[in-house]
Write the structure tokens for this entry.
Amino acid sequence: MATTSKVIVVTSGKGGVGKTTTAASFATGLALRGHKTVVIDFDIGLRNLDLIMGCERRVVYDFVNVINNEATIHQALIKDKNCDNLYILAASQTKDKEALTEEGVARILDDLKKDFAFIVCDSPAGIEKGAFMALYFADAALVVTNPEVSSVRDSDRILGILSSKSKRAVDGKEKVKEYLVINRYSPERVEGGEMLSIDDIQDILRIHLLGVIPESKEVLHASNNGTPVIHLKNSDISESYLDLVARFLGENKPIRFIDPEKKGFLKRIFGGE
Amino acid sequence: MSLMDVLFGEKRETSASKAKERLQIILAHERTSLHDGRANFHWLPELQKELLSVVAKYIEVDQDALTINIERRENIELLEINVTLPEKD
């Protein structure tokens, strides 16, 4: 077993904040950096990671099939179309979330640790079984947060669960490493006082900031095409994900794309969009 | 904020600062009231150790002479520190 293999959950509590988008680009980024990576969809019954990764037509066996011994892990793993080092394990579309048992998930993660350096768990929204199983075995957590009150509150809630209910917490081991990912950030709106700033969010959540992903129209194009946004060339959003991955791997990179675009002379005097 | 706002606008409270304030209040409450909230008192054993070492600088006490406890009731949190002094011979 590779002793260095790490389980990372991408979580948030709230839905629609960009967990799957982040999980897809984060896992892709790790693979692009040469690390053998698998990304698992824990959203049983509502799988979507396959669509974001563009492999929806190649799903034969899923996570629950492997848990129920109806397929081997190697039959269920889907090789990514763009990266050699990247594999996807799809969620089941038919079963319910009770199909995820602690023993079953533990067995599969242990199996995957033999082959993969990073195991990225894409959590469903909420704090029920699927979300709980996604974070239970985590060594690290990317907490995806939008600069908005309900998302920040739910992130705080998830951080409470990570520090009290995760396996590391229950076993009294070193705590899960918590990383903040601020997603859909709009520097212009922050400057106008209508959006929580990076400092505001950090003041409240008090965990290490791993990256700030700007609000971007490219995300929709990327999901339309089934290609994780990190693959885009020369765009703010792909660059910010590449930086985020580099920081996760221990590199020192300043946070970029957090200053508002320079406004024209008249706008600076009279205001307005 | 534009120059016009600075010169002529009344000093307005932005909605972002309102959001931050509301979050700080509600989360302070939820962190301690939820059983799996973020206020886990992980620093308690360390505090106990340090307090004991301070007491031991002045008084000869046993290793278990100092106990520490946190109690949560409806609206208050109570930090209870108990030091048992050695009996006089």
Notes: The first strand of chain A starts at residue 6 and ends at 11.
